[in-house]
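Duplicate of #3305? Posting structure anyway:
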C-alpha cells in the first residue's frame, strides 16, 4: 500500500485527540505511509476560506471550517437528526426535511473536491462514518479511480428501516462506489447486503464479494477493537487508583454496579434506570448493599431529543433515590459529566458489574474496556445488550434484552451473586477475544482487504 488518505468529520490534528481508539489506529498507518487526514476544523465561520494545512510527524492534516448553515444542515440536522436515529432504529425521532439532505450532499462534495487534487497513484482512501456516506460517489465523480474504503462506526439498519430514508436509493448507490465497506457486525453487513439483493438484484458471491450496479465490491464485518494491553495498564495507573479510592470512600464496602455511556437515546438509559429500580424492588437484600453509578456525559445538547432525555433521567434517578435512599446510602448516583479514560479504567476495575445495555449500538467499546480493566484474581461481570455489536464477539458474557427491565434486574442480581470460579472462567474467555482482536487487528484486517484488488 502507498499512502493512506483518511477522511472523517473530526481529525486528530490536535495531538491530545490521539489518546485512543480510532485516532490511534489511523494515526499509525498515516505516519507509516506519510499520509494525509481530511476533515472539519471544528470552527464555524461566516465565510469559508482556504483549508488549513497542519503538518505533524510526516502527516498532513487538511481541515476546513463550516459555515453556520453547513454545520446546521449537514451535522446537526441530516447527520444527527435523520441518519443517526434511522440507523439506530428510531425512525420516530427522525426529522425529515426538504433541504437538509442537499446541505449534507454539498458538504460531502466540497470535502471530496478538497481531497481529489492531493491524491496520487498508489494511494488508498479510508473514509469514516455516517457523515460521509456519499463520499465515494463524489470522489469518483472527481476523477479518482483508486481504492476507497469506508467504515461505518454505527449500526446499519434492516432494509425496511433503511428505506424510511427518503434518499435511501441515492445513499445506497453512493455507498456502492466504495471498494470495501466495513461494518461493525455481521448483522449490520447482512442488512446492507439484503437491501441490495432485494432492491437491485445484487449477487452475493460469498466471502464478502457483491456484484451490483455493474461493479464488484466487498462488504465485510470488521469489529473494531481497543488498545487492549494499554488499557489494562491504564487500570492500575496512579490516576486510576486515585479514582477508585475516591469512589471507594463513597461505596463503604458496597458492591458497585457501573454504567458509562454518552447521554444518547440509543444507549437505553431510561430502560436501564427502570431495571435498577426493579432490582431494589424485587431483590430486597441488595438494598443498602449495592450502589449503582451511571456516568453519562451530555451529548449533542443542541438537539431537542437529548434535552428531553436529560429531564427523563433526572426524574427516574430522583424516584429511585427517593424510594430507597437512606441517610448513608444513595442507591443510584448519576453523573452527567465526563472523566479521563484512566479514571474510568480505575472505576471499571473495582466494579462488580458493568451494565452495557444499549437499545442499539455499532460496537460499544466500554464493554471491551471493562474486560481489560479487571483484576484477574477477582474479575467483575459484564452484562451486555443483545443489540450491541460487541455481543457477537463477547458471547461469554451475560446477554440481555434491554427492553425487558425485569429480566435485566434479575441478571444484575445473578451477576452480583456469581461465584468467583465462574466469573474467572467467563472473564478469561472474554479477555482472550479482546486481546486477539484489538485495534491493530481491526486496522490490519480492513487495510489488507482494501489493499487487495477490488474491481
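Output from current build:
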Amino acid at each position: 500500500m502507498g499512502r493512506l488518505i483518511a477522511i472523517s468529520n473530526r481529525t486528530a490534528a490536535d495531538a491530545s485527540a490521539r489518546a485512543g481508539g480510532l485516532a490511534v489506529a489511523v494515526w499509525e498507518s498515516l505516519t507509516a505511509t506519510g499520509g494525509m487526514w481530511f476533515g472539519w476544523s471544528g470552527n464555524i465561520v461566516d465565510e469559508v476560506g482556504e483549508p488549513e494545512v497542519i503538518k505533524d510527524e510526516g502527516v498532513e492534516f487538511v481541515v476546513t471550517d463550516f459555515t453556520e448553515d453547513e454545520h446546521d444542515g449537514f451535522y446537526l440536522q441530516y447527520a444527527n437528526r435523520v441518519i443517526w436515529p434511522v440507523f439506530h432504529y428510531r425512525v420516530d425521532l427522525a426529522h425529515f426535511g426538504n433541504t437538509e439532505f442537499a446541505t449534507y450532499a454539498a458538504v460531502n462534495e466540497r470535502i471530496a473536491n478538497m481531497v481529489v487534487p492531493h491524491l496520487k497513484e498508489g494511494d488508498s482512501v479510508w473514509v469514516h462514518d455516517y457523515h460521509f456516506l456519499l463520499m465515494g460517489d463524489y470522489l469518483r465523480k472527481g476523477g479518482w479511480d483508486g481504492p476507497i474504503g469506508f467504515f461505518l462506526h454505527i449500526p446499519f439498519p434492516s432494509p425496511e428501516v433503511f428505506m424510511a430514508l427518503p434518499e435511501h436509493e441515492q445513499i445506497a448507490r453512493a455507498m456502492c462506489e466504495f471498494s470495501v465497506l466495513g461494518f461493525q457486525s455481521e448483522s449490520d453487513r447482512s442488512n446492507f447486503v439484503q437491501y441490495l439483493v432485494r432492491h437491485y438484484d445484487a449477487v452475493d458471491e460469498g466471502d464478502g464479494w457483491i456484484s451490483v450496479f455493474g461493479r464488484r465490491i466487498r462488504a465485510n464485518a470488521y469489529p473494531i477493537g481497543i488498545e487492549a494491553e494499554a488499557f489494562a495498564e491504564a487500570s492500575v495507573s496512579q490516576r486510576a487508583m486515585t479514582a477508585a479510592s475516591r469512589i471507594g470512600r463513597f461505596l463503604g464496602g458496597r458492591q458497585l454496579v457501573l454504567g458509562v455511556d454518552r447521554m444518547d437515546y440509543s444507549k437505553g438509559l431510561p430502560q436501564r434506570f427502570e431495571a435498577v429500580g426493579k432490582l431494589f424492588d424485587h431483590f430486597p437484600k441488595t438494598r443498602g448493599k449495592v450502589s449503582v453509578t451511571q456516568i453519562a456525559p451530555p451529548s449533542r445538547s443542541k438537539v431537542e431529543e437529548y434535552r428531553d432525555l436529560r429531564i427523563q433521567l433526572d426524574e427516574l434517578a430522583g424516584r429511585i433515590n427517593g424510594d430507597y435512599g437512606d441517610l448513608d446510602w444513595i442507591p443510584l448516583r448519576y453523573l452527567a459529566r465526563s472523566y479521563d479514560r484512566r479514571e474510568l479504567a480505575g472505576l471499571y476495575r473495582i466494579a462488580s458489574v458493568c451494565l452495557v445495555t444499549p437499545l442499539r449500538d455499532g460496537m460499544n467499546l466500554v464493554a471491551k474496556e471493562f474486560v481489560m480493566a479487571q483484576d484477574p484474581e477477582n474479575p467483575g461481570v459484564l452484562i451486555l445488550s443483545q443489540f450491541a455489536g460487541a455481543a457477537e464477539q463477547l458471547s461469554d458474557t451475560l446477554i440481555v434484552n434491554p427492553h425487558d427491565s425485569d429480566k435485566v434486574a434479575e441478571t444484575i442480581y445473578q451477576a452480583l451473586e456469581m461465584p468467583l470460579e465462574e466469573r474467572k472462567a467467563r472473564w478469561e474467555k472474554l479477555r482472550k477475544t479482546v486481546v486477539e482482536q484489538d485495534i491493530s487487528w481491526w486496522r490490519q484486517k480492513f487495510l489488507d482487504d482494501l489493499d487487495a484488488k477490488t474491481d
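Confirmed duplicate; merging threads. Residues 4-225+439-451 form a domain with the Rossmann fold fold (CATH 3.40.50.2000). Residues 304-324 form the longest helix (21 residues).
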